[in-house]
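Narrative summary of target 7.
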Amino acid sequence: MSDKVYNLAQLEELGGGDAEFVTMMVATFLEHTPGQLEEMKKAHASGDLATLGAIAHKIKPNVDMFGIEAIVQDIRDLEQMGKNGINNDETVAKLNRVDAELSVAFDQLKDY
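Modeled conformation, tokenized:
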């Protein structure tokens, strides 16, 4: 098993040691975020950068809360790029990294 891409320390702290709270938050994350990721990729594919930015904004707190460090900056950049209508190779690279990292997080968290 590869290293975890997430860190639940912040979430555990927020839950004050309530394991059920953490489990519920993980379940909520797994219920909503994969769909948001798909919406974000569709928005990019159709050139709807405003929606891409808006969804990045929605996903951002989860990236922070779940300690997915590798994409903390990428999700913020995508939010700004979306707002500013920037679509270039960097946008694509960041979206691909967010997609790859979140996909690994989803797989890893399924076993939580």
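The helical segments are 9-14, 19-45, 49-65, 72-83, 89-110.
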